[in-house]
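quick one before i forget lol
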Amino acid sequence: MLRSVLSDFSLGELLRFLEQGRKSGRLLLRPTEQQQTAASSATSEPEWCLFFSNGKIVAATHSSNPKGLQQLIESRGWLRATSLERLLQVRPLTTPLGIYLKEQGILTSEDLQLLFKQQVLTPLPRLFALKEGWFEFSPSSSLPLMEMTGLRASPLSIALTGLRLLEDWTPLLDKLPLATSTLVSAIEGHPPYRLDPQEWQIWEYVNSNLTLEEIAEHLSVAVLEVQKASFRLMVAGLVEEVPKISQEDSTIIEAVPAPIQPPKLLTQQFLQQFLSFLKDS
């Protein structure tokens, strides 16, 4: 079991670790504020559970709504809870709920795509906005079949999509890269994820030593838009933020001087010879 606070690891780093390590299990994320104000949990942000299989995200739920997928299906008028109960009595669930209902002819492949996106895209932007919180990863082969559509996706790809859909960036402003910073590539070759047009434009300036402010000027867009797109690239582990190093910097850089050898002590023989020399002279 891996447990720590989000200040030790960013959510992007955590998702990269799970994806690249092909981990399976449950990632629990909870804001610190909820622990401190348990009495007012009705108004606080719920804890979220993200489920992984071989590094891919397969479901997302939160503690205050343990039947999230069923409610999504019911809210779209596709199947009532009572009807689902009767189905499960006839044929117990041994596969993800989404696959089960598709086999029954109740849901289509397009329906499952829509449900999966709504299920997993909802929490990620809000989780990236957490200022304080803790996480706990429990490796396990047991997955919540009732909360699974049967689909899976790269968590970093989902994070990119979720952040693109985010309308209010206010909670994330203090996490954006500085306008005076530059970007360097953190990978070799081309990005493994599908980038949107603006992200591709910024990717072309990676390793150019241009600041985000200068990139914005070249692209004729607002600096904030470049910062947000750069943040998404950082979350996906594609780039890193570094301070700009000017080639015209006037800072004087000196070589490290050689260590000074301590003076050798005068021997008794040398002193006697020196005294004899003085007498003779």
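fyi The chain has two domains: 2-165, 176-243.
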